[in-house]
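Below is a filled-in request sheet from our internal design queue. Each sheet records the structural input a requester submitted and the sequence that came back. We keep these sheets so that new team members can see what a complete request looks like end to end.

REQUESTER: design group, bay 2
PRIORITY: normal
MODE: inverse folding
CHAIN LENGTH: 316
BACKBONE (tokenized):
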């Protein structure tokens, strides 16, 4: 394992560290993509998410002057045999902490694999293509390139608050979020629609725990749910609307259902005075979702590479 420079230290974070961590992440975001892309609520969510233990899974690194230099944590809310390793360091100054934090996290991944009951465990990590030092670090640690994600955005300035009519035979309406039966069907559409993608399955109870409100819509055909759109409220009190899931069942694809859901959501967001809408998309998605997002006016804000390696469960 690579070691920290003399005088540098690590410790476990606490929730009292959230503002300090956010300062680090914002510095990293600005250096990588030109603007902050993380909120205080998101930091807290990552530290307290399912299958994440502050006292065992996460680290902070500090330089010889006691200034924060890095943050490392895993993300596996589903408990399946795939984890995500996140390592943030302060631009330039925090680079000496990058490999030591990654090595700590990878060692912990072997233990997490055993604890979650998986003999072989996939570990992924992400890097902006310009983060060459981190890409070199990941490559040296055994990661290989897998695919790209894109962070997309669109201005809502010229979007009418009245949505265009959906295709014939399709009805778009708000989801009944207080109806447990409908929300179970809503979740089931997400799960079924993403079966042919790289999306990790999530149980209904876990999905509901991470559900943070927001506007949600369903598309119906002959009384049956054909597709759904889930948005979330901004974590940081900002104005950007966020589309978390857009899911259309296979029999209803290529019929304008996804576009109708997006345009209804965009109209609602515009009516609320939101200046823009964003989402993340897997560029390798076999449904070619990125093409739809471009069609409705969205454009990539930046792209992120995804890298992957595997580890063996501790004790195997």
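RETURNED SEQUENCE:
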């Amino acid at each position: 394992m690579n070691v920290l420079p003399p005088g540098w230290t690590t410790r476990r974070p606490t929730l009292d560290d959230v503002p300090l961590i956010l300062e680090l992440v914002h510095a990293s975001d600005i250096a990588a993509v030109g603007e902050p892309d993380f909120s205080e609520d998101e930091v807290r969510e990552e530290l307290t998410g399912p299958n994440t233990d502050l006292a065992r899974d996460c680290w902070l690194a500090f330089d010889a002057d006691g200034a924060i230099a890095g943050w490392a944590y895993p993300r596996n809310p589903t408990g399946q045999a795939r984890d995500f390793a996140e390592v943030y360091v302060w631009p330039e100054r925090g680079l000496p902490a990058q490999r030591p934090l990654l090595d700590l996290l990878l060692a912990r991944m072997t233990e997490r694999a055993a604890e979650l009951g998986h003999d072989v465990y996939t570990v992924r990590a992400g890097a902006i293509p310009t983060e060459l030092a981190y890409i070199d670090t990941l490559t040296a640690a055994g990661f290989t390139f897998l695919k790209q994600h894109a962070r997309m955005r669109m201005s809502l300035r010229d979007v009418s608050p009245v949505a265009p009519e959906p295709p014939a035979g399709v009805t778009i309406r708000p989801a009944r979020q207080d109806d447990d039966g409908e929300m179970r069907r809503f979740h089931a559409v997400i799960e079924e629609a993403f079966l042919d993608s790289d999306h990790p399955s999530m149980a209904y109870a876990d999905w509901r725990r991470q559900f943070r409100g927001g506007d949600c819509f369903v598309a119906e055909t002959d009384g049956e749910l054909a597709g759904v759109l889930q948005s979330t409220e901004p974590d940081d009190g900002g104005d950007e609307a966020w589309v978390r899931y857009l899911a259309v069942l296979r029999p209803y694809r290529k019929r304008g259902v996804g576009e109708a859901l997006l345009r209804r959501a965009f109209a609602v967001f515009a009516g609320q005075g939101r200046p823009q809408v964003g989402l993340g998309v897997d560029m390798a998605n076999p449904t070619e979702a990125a093409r739809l997002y471009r069609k409705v006016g969205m454009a990539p804000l930046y792209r992120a590479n995804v890298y992957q390696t595997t580890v063996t469960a501790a004790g195997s």
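SHEET NOTES:
- The two ends are 21 Å apart (CA to CA).
- The first helix runs from residue 18 to 33.
FILED BY: M.R.
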